[in-house]
Design brief:
By secondary structure, the protein is an alpha/beta fold. The protein is built from 12 helices and 10 strands. The strands form 3 sheets. Strands 6-2-1-7-8 form a 5-stranded parallel beta sheet. Strands 3-5-4 form a 3-stranded antiparallel beta sheet. Strands 9-10 form a two-stranded antiparallel sheet.
Length: about 300
Amino acid sequence: MLPNTLLSSRPFPVTTPVAAKVTSPAKASPSASVDLSFLRQLVYEQSQNVLDPSRDYLFETRLAKLLRNHGMTHLEELIQLLRLKRDPNLERKVAEAMTINETSFFRDGRPFELLRTELLPALIESRRNTRTLRFWSAACSTGQEACSIAMLLLEHFPQLANWNVKIEGTDISDEVVHRCQAATYHRIEMNRGLPARNIVRFFDHQGEDWTAKQEVRRLCNFRQANLCGNQLPFSEKFDVVFLRNVMLYFSQESRKKLLANVHRLLAPDGLLFLGSSEQPADPSLWTPTLAGGTCYYRPRQAS
């Protein structure tokens, strides 16, 4: 999601026949004199997210909690600390704080509808002997995408009750992975894309919070993983991979590396969903299909 642009208005300087009124220069933001290129490079090394200097203002707001937790008040202190001594844990926390965690239940509903009506029935038929289905929600944020897949399966495919079905969710942030594991969402989150029938059937209510029932949670497994790390924490093939709106700030090289790894982890007849504005970095590895107002990809045999 692009940051909102805030426009400020200032009165025009008032001039007189004698002399022009001198206006004081605008007060610089606390980070204006700080060299944030160090933090931008750190974030890139940790997560492969390329942060444009025009978004430097985000460091102050997103790192405020981290600064407080470490007894600091200014970004200069953090930069000085990280320059003096490498701290892998702190570096990872900086990168996690700068990660965009935007998600909702059944976000952009077209892939889910296409799965329900066309793609999953065909996959289920082709897996009738192994009776196994594996899904991956990559960069799952707080878990709504994985829960949406689980609810889709439970509501529309009761024949999978005795199958070995697993939905893996991964995110770079330990904090959001813990939230995924708790599967508890605030009323505001529940109101974003979740049909009322699903709320009643699949969640328990307490105060302003709603927790997914056991039948949803047992299908989902969440863990911390860096998509751009040297090795992903999987060895078995997936049937469906959701990798949506993940690579928006990745370099072309990082996208190519990630999608090559996904290609190796996807079954030959598996399905890949990207964000509506994303395309594979190496088109030679993927066959696109446009259906139901959305595009999905199947892996081609690598040359």
